[in-house]
Structures are given as structure tokens and as C-alpha cells.
Amino acid sequence: MPRAPAALKPKDAFVDWSILWQYRGAFWSGFTVTVWLSAACIVGSTIVGLLAGCLGSLPSFFLRRLISAYTELLRNIPLVVKLFFFYFVLGIPGIPAALLALTLHQSAYVADVVTAGIRSIARGQVDAGLSLGHGYWQIFRYLIIPQMLRIVIPPMTSQYVAIIKHSSVVGLVAVQDLTFQTQEINVATFRGFEAATATTVLYGLLALAMIAAMAALEKRFAWR
Amino acid sequence: MITFDKVNKYFNQLHVLKDVSFHIEAGEVVVVCGPSGSGKSTMLRCVNRLEKIDRGEIVVKGVNLNAPTSDIAKLRAEIGMVFQHFNLYPHLRVLDNLILAPIKVRGVSREVATDTAMKLLAKVGIQEKASAYPSQLSGGQQQRVAIARALAMQPKIMLFDEPTSALDPEMIREVLEVMVDLANEGMTMIVVTHEMGFARRVAHRVIFMDEGRVIEDEKPEVFFSQAKDPRARVFLSKILSHI
Fold first, then answer.
1. For residue B97, is it left (φ>0), alpha (ψ between -120 and 50) or beta?
2. Is the residue at B173 inside a domain?
3. What rounded mean pLDDT belongs to chain B?
4. Which of A74, A137, A171, A179 is the right S-S partner for A108, CB 3.0 to 4.6 Å?
5. Residue B61 contacts A where some CB pair is shorter than 8 Å
6. What CATH code is assigned to A10-220?
7. How far apart are CA B106 and CA B100, in angstroms?
8. Tell me, what's the ipTM?
9. Smallest Cβ distance to B87: which of A124, A135, A142?
10. DSSP notation for A116-140
11. A125 contacts in B (CB within 8 Å)?
12. What are the pLDDT digits (tens) for A136-186?
């Protein structure tokens, strides 16, 4: 018959939510790491993805192939493998490796969203711009990019939520994010049920906040 | 002002323009009609080189469109174009639709461009919509904005590519009236349209195209009563019968 660990007293068998308060410091520190890591990767992957998506939409065969090679490569290697590559193979420390892996990973998807957004803009917009004497650069700058930025807000929302979710793997290279802290609390107390429940709620709230923020952004920039 | 000399164009294997030749003088209003797929819109898009041609020569305002030295953007700025689906910029308000090209292409100041734009909006009868977005306007209003946007560049030539085909019947009139005013002011116009009433009222000539060729090039009174080619007569009987 398996014995309960020595540290576990009978009353501990019940759910004990006080553990959350007791470890609030760990939760808070993990939560802040998850938030700033996600925020940094959202900014990074947006910049890299916008750049890649725009370059890949230019009428240059070479650029199109180059960008499609970039996105194919990054999308077809698992995120955790990329993380391990930067951490173990290149020897980059945990936090920069996590930032790099997450940013590059999601930038490939963002680039696809941007490319699709640009492709969805009616050909007539370019015709109109050309007929008024605009060059291709002006058409890109004043017509394509502003329209694309509005079109991509809804698909970008799921990209940003994906970053928040994917950031939960960075504990594998010893970055002490929310998921990492949850595991630590479980190891220290065997209160995995309580810790994981709290963590689930926290991730859910983060995602909801992201969705609400993007919905507000979409409303703000609607072409009424 | 506009000369086509044996212009030929292919879309891959498809021969869409076959030896198209004509000459249009300054101030002329020319209506182009013909069955769908006859090459009318393609021909029109060649005038400002939205389409490149494969053989022949197009000279617009003394500029050879095929010559690699031609400043095509400068020429395009002097040729207004109005599209079937308006092609207004959905992310810009009506006024900003009008002033973008004058400011960015011509380098006109915002004040001057706005002033000109407001006058043009008044001319097409929608100055009260200056701060609306295109999606808030009816089709007829959108097309009038599109005409005003083209006029904002003070073009010498106006091209109309089926400007009323996407409109509800009750909105066609308001757009045609703007076009009639423009014709009466002496604008050089090429109008691809099936509005034969418009052709009768203001066109100096009617060009009828079929299968990539110019079949008829006549004064409207001659075209409507004594079209020589049987294809033109069949076409006319089809589109005039239900009016």
C-alpha cells in the first residue's frame, strides 16, 4: 500500500486554497515574467512579421522566395526545438533565447497574416493610385499599408494570444515564468491542483484582456 | 490628343486588341460600346498604360507610351480615370480621397488642395459629405466622389470605364448628369458605357468594338440609325429594345 509522503498530514488531503496566498510572491513574479516576455515578443514579432510580410508582397521574385523560405523554415520547426537550439546549440542564455525563439516563431505567422492582408486589398486600389500618378512606393505607403493594418487586426489578435500561450514553454530553459512557478509550487507543496487552477485562470484573464484590447483597437480604426 | 495606331495586345494566348486604330481630338467626347469581352475596357486601360501593349503605337498628348523614356506617372496625373467599382480609398474620408494625389504627386499645399477639393465636391453636389467615409455613401455618391477625385488633378483627358454599370438604376442619372456637365465644358472624354442615351446627348463619336476590333467609328446619329456592320446592328437591337 503506497504511503503518503511524510510531510503530508491528513488534513492536507483536502483542497487548500490558502496555498495561493502563501505563494503569492511566486505567482506574482511568474505572472510579471509571462506578461513582459509576451509583450516583448508581441512587439518583436509584429515588427519582424510586418517587415517580412511587406517585403514578401513586393513584386520581386527573389524577395518572395526568400520570405517564403523564412516562414516555411520557422513554421515547420517546433517552437520548443527552436528554443533548445538557441539555448543549447548556440549557448544563448535563457531569457534572450526565449525572446528570440518566441519572436521568430510567431513572426512567421504574422508575416503570413500580413501577406494575406495585402493580397486581400482590391486590385482596383492600385489602379486608382496609378491612374492618379502615384508611384508604387506612394501606393504602398498611403494605400496598401494603412488598409492592411486595419484588415489584419482580427487575425493578429489570435497571433498575440498564441504568443501568450506559447510563452508557457520557456520554463524548459529555466526562465521563471508563470508556468515555471506553478511547477515549482507543486514540487514544494504537492498543491498542484490549487496552483494549476490559479494559473489557468491567470492565462485566461491575460488572453481575454488581449482580445478586449484588440477589439477596442479595431473599433477605433474602423472605416465607419 | 490621343492616337492609337494598329495597337495589338495579348493576354497570354488571347488576342484582346487587334489592330485598333483611331484618333481623338482635344475636346471630343467618344463613347465606346460593344459586347462584353470585346476589349473596350482593355483599350481604355491602355490610354494611361494600366495595360501595356504588345504591338503598335499609342501617342497621348504627344507622348509615346511605349517609349521607355516617357514619364508615365506625370502623364497619368493628367489623365483622370473613373472605374466601374469606384475604387475609392476606404480608409480615407471623402476630402482626403480628393487631396491625396494633389499633395503627394503634385506637391500642392494642403490648404490649396482642400480648397480645390471642396469646390469640386460642390460641383458634383456632395460637399456636405466631405468628412464621411466612402462606405457611408450611396453608390451614386461614391461614383461622383470618384469623378471629383480624378478632376482634382486637373486632367486634360477623362477616361470612364463603365461608370454606371455597378449602380442601381435610380443613381445612374446623377452620375450621368455630372458627366454631361463635364462634356459640355469641353473635357476630352473616352467613355466606355452602354448608356446610349448619354451617347446620343453628348458624344461626338461612337466607337463600336467586337472581338478586339474597332468595327464602327461614327457620329452617334449615323451609328444609331445606319450602322453598317451587322454585329453593331445586332448589338444595338439588343440594348435598345428594352429601353
1. alpha
2. no
3. 92
4. A74
5. no
6. 1.10.3720.10
7. 10
8. 0.93
9. A124
10. HHHHTS-HHHHHHHHHTT--HHHII
11. 87, 89
12. 999 999 999 999 999 999 999 999 999 999 999 998 998 898 899 899 888
